Amino acid sequence: MVPLPSKGLRAFTLPAGRIRYLIDNLKKDDPTILDVDIFDTNGDRLARSFDILRLIQGDWKLRINDKTYYVQVPTRGFRTMATNQENIERFRGWFSELAKTQDYLDYEVYLYKCQDWGLNQKQAYELCSELCRLGIIFRYEHNIELEKKIFLNPSNLTKLIRQVLNIDYATMSLDSRKELLNSLRKEYDILLSEHNKILKSAETTVSTMGWSLFVGLCCQWVLFARLTWWEYSWDEIEPVTYFTTAVEMILAGYAYYLLKRKEFAITDFSRNLVQRRYEALSRSQQLDTVKLKQLTTKVKELETLIQSEEQLVKL
């Protein structure tokens, strides 16, 4: 309802488009209107090129000729607009794209995005709360540090919290934990035994390769000695030894650097060979290394919890 100077209260609908369309309709309905301006609550005049939806995002002031009227937008309507399905889907897609490259977003950046899409600060807060309720994002507003961040992967955050707090075992009794630990240890011992066998086999294979290389170098030295002192002379054999050494040391070392991007070291080279052999044997023998790591973590967690609880009982 708008109080026109010569006609009193009249009902108007907000037309689609710009603010100027509403002003034109007011002047058209009442010829006594000479000037119409719209201001925000801070007294700043809104440009007539602004989208008409700006007027239902928050309270504003309407000045007709020399009289000013305060327009209060109903809270229910504002909340409905801020959290409608269109906005939820729009921000869901935006947050999904951001979650591919980052874990959290500054709340200030979110406010700027809301402003670009026609939402004021109150609406941005309501929409953020709704998105948190739906599990799309997470923001903890009761902490001075966490309230500045919007976490884009709530599921990952939940897993970390469960892992830190050991929520899976929190409700279990001491006897139940011990029973679970015994069952996990049985499965863990079987996998650990297979792991140790495969690791020992890999280390044996690499050790055999190392000794074979040593024997080959010894045979090479004997061959060069034979050629130098019995078959030919040092002047003839020296170029052969030089190029052989260059191939073995310089080219092989540089090729290792190109592949690993670090300086050649016997310990690192041996460790890499053992790891590659271990992985190959694990695949061939179908050892579940992922499950072994999970069981290792669970067994350590349960052992720590049980020890802590037993110490508390003793006290």
Could you describe the 3D structure shown?
The protein is mainly alpha-helical and 315 residues long. The chain has 3 domains: 2-73, no CATH class; 79-165, Arc Repressor Mutant, subunit A (Orthogonal Bundle); 174-314, no CATH class. Helices cover 64% and strands 9% of the residues. The chain has a 3-stranded antiparallel beta sheet with strand order 3-4-5, with helices on one face. Helix 2 crosses helix 5, helix 8 packs across helix 10 and helix 8 packs across helix 11. It starts with a strand and ends with a helix. The mean pLDDT is 78.
Class inferred from helices and paired strands: mainly alpha
The radius of gyration is 38 Å
Low-confidence stretches: none
* Multimeric organization: single chain
Could you list some keywords that capture this structure?
3 domains; Arc Repressor Mutant, subunit A; 9% strand; 7 strands; two-stranded antiparallel sheet; mainly alpha; elongated; 315 residues; 11 helices; three-stranded antiparallel beta sheet; single chain
Topology:
Elements lengths: L1 E3 L3 E3 L8 H11 L6 E5 L19 E5 L2 E5 L3 H8 L2 H15 L4 E3 H10 L4 H13 L15 E3 L2 H12 L1 H4 L3 H58 L2 H27 L5 H19 L4 H26 L1
Antiparallel strand pairs: 1-2, 3-4, 4-5, 6-7
Helix pairs in contact: 2-5, 8-9, 8-10, 8-11
TL;DR?
The protein is mainly alpha-helical and 315 residues long. It is 64% helix and 9% strand. It is elongated.
